Automatic annotation (TrEMBL):
SUPFAM superfamilies: NAD(P)-binding Rossmann-fold domains (SSF51735). Keywords: Oxidoreductase. GO terms for molecular function: oxidoreductase activity, acting on the CH-OH group of donors, NAD or NADP as acceptor. Belongs to the NAD(P)-dependent epimerase/dehydratase family. Dihydroflavonol-4-reductase subfamily. This is NAD-dependent epimerase/dehydratase domain-containing protein.
Length: 155
């Protein structure tokens, strides 16, 4: 029986490549998306012969129990989802807190599920986001190649 991996942020650039890799390696995938339109976009990128091994869960808002359904019966989690906004008025409220709360929500859901299911979830991978290097004071820089010197002063 194939293992199932949860990929949060399934519609993101990184999420899409992670899903492709997992499906190509024979895993089942459960992904999270925030809307029907994003679900359709994810499924449109999956070859028809692999679509039977992917399911998607809608996460509308990040709340304390947002990920409870998504973690059911998965063997591992790759947390890619993070807010991406280019019109930020309050960096803490618009960017940092949603990212922190999303990560905490995934970890809490996994912990809660594992308590009742003999530690079925064996691994959790947490990725970073563009926000780690995007300095809003410098604006968007199309074509710019970010390096380790570009860490955002807020993070």
């Amino acid at each position: 029986m194939s293992k199932t991996i949860l990929v949060t942020g399934a519609n993101s650039f990184s999420g899409g490549w992670i899903i492709k890799y997992l499906l190509d390696k024979g895993y089942n995938v459960r992904g999270t998306v925030r809307s029907q339109a994003k679900e359709s976009r994810v499924l449109d990128g999956i070859p028809s012969e692999q679509q039977c091994r992917i399911s998607l869960v809608h996460i509308n808002d990040i709340t304390t129990d947002s990920f409870d359904e998504a973690v059911q019966d998965v063997d591992g989690i790759i947390h890619v989802a993070s807010p991406v906004q280019f019109e930020i008025t309050d960096p803490e409220k618009d960017f940092l807190l949603p990212a922190i709360n999303g990560t905490i929500g995934v970890l809490q859901a996994a912990h809660k599920y594992n308590q009742n299911h003999f530690n079925k979830i064996k691994r959790i991978v947490i990725t970073s986001s563009l926000g780690a290097v995007l300095d809003q004071t410098k604006g968007l820089r199309p074509g710019y190649c970010y390096t380790e010197k570009d860490w955002c002063p807020l993070t």
